[in-house]
């Protein structure tokens, strides 16, 4: 037969173990529910091109466009996806996007970057 002290110590020990188990499950919960970080697509702008110059996205899938410039300030404008941002050479710009429409779209550099600026396009396909 357990004494009161032994019974109380046993309950406390079980409580600590349950608390630790609950904490571990809480840490694993996001992975268990399928939550993931959005896919990151790296794009580099330089006179007078985007690299890559074509990307494919999935309707409803959140992604992050990670934008960098190799030379001067560029822009990225794509109205159907709600993108309108500047790309500075001294920093990385992350643009979260969750496409809601399918199709093929042409994004443009909307910050004048020189004589070939008008030919600077990015094709975005949303499936």
In what range is the share of β-strand residues?
35-45%
Terminal residue distance = 69 Å
The CATH class of the largest domain, by name, is Mainly Beta
Strand order of the largest sheet: 2-1-4-7
Architecture of the largest domain, according to CATH?
A: Sandwich
Average pLDDT rating: 82
CATH topology of the largest domain: Immunoglobulin-like
Would you list the SSEs in sequence order as H and E?
Answer: HEEEEEEEEE
Helix content: 10-25%
The CATH superfamily of the largest domain bears the name Cupredoxins -  blue copper proteins
**Envelope shape:** globular
How many distinct folded domains? Answer: 2
Low-confidence stretches: 17-22, 29-33
Could you explain the architecture of this structure?
This protein is α/β, with parallel strands linked by helices and 127 residues long. It has one helix spanning 4-32; strands at residues 39-46, 49-51, 54-57, 63-69, 74-78, 83-87, 93-97, 103-108, 121-126. The longest helix is centred in the first third of the chain and has 29 residues, at 4-32. It is globular. The model is unreliable at 17-22 and 29-33 (pLDDT under 50).
Brief sketch in words of this structure:
With 127 residues, the chain is α/β, with parallel strands linked by helices. It has one helix at residues 4-32, and strands at residues 39-46, 49-51, 54-57, 63-69, 74-78, 83-87, 93-97, 103-108, 121-126.
Topology:
Layout: H1 4-32, E1 39-46, E2 49-51, E3 54-57, E4 63-69, E5 74-78, E6 83-87, E7 93-97, E8 103-108, E9 121-126
Parallel strand pairs: 1-4, 3-9
Antiparallel strand pairs: 1-2, 4-7, 5-6, 8-9
